[in-house]
Amino acid sequence: MLSMPAEFEQFHWMVDMVQNVDMGLVVLDKDFTIQVWNGFMTHHSGKQAGDVIGKTLFEVFPEIPEHWFRLKAKPVYDLGCRSFITWQQRPYLFKCRNVRPITQQADFMYQNITLNPMRNPTGQVKSLFLSIEDATSEALASLMVKENNR
């Protein structure tokens, strides 16, 4: 069993990883209220955690079609399984700036998103977390191949 200082240190490691991982992490409760907003999301969206936490996803991002997104989240909450949004289905969920505008000619970041269930200690799914991957390089390469094949 870990001692209290070791558990405390591991907790801080986890917080540091969540904030600094090269992927967006957003936690939403069943009302779609934002609970966690990591550093990747702050950097790429320009929205500070303090400005979004406690607000619904649809308040902060009114451009997200609410009915469509609720349908994407339904199997996560009802069945406890993952749901996916790829850049081919919808180029992005969160309109984020492209952080490599010189090497990649895109006005925004293409995204692959996974909606993941978060279970409480009794096994119920009360929240979900979004993992947001920058798929701009992949998208631009694929679009270039399609364009060249025309």
How is this structure best described in words?
The chain is α+β, with helices and mostly antiparallel strands and 150 residues long. Strands 2-1-5-4-3 form a five-stranded antiparallel β-sheet. The longest helix is centred in the first third of the chain and has 17 residues, at 4-20. A hairpin with a 4-residue loop joins strand 1 (24-29) and strand 2. The protein has helices at residues 4-20, 39-45, 49-52, 57-60, 66-79, 136-149, and strands spanning 24-29, 34-37, 83-85, 111-119, 125-134. It starts with a helix and ends with a helix.
Q: How would you summarize this macromolecular structure in one to three sentences?
A:
The protein is of the alpha+beta class. The protein is built from six helices and five strands.
Structural class: alpha+beta
The largest sheet has its strands arranged as 2-1-5-4-3
The CATH class name reads Alpha Beta
Ranges with pLDDT <50 over ≥5 residues? none
Sheet with the most strands, sense and barrel status: 5 strands, antiparallel
Question: How does the SSE layout of this entry go?
Answer:
Elements: H1 4-20, E1 24-29, E2 34-37, H2 39-45, H3 49-52, H4 57-60, H5 66-79, E3 83-85, E4 111-119, E5 125-134, H6 136-149
Antiparallel strand pairs: 1-2, 1-5, 3-4, 4-5
InterPro entries: PAS-like_dom_sf (IPR035965), PAS_fold (IPR013767)
Pfam family, one: PAS
Domain PAS fold: 15-134
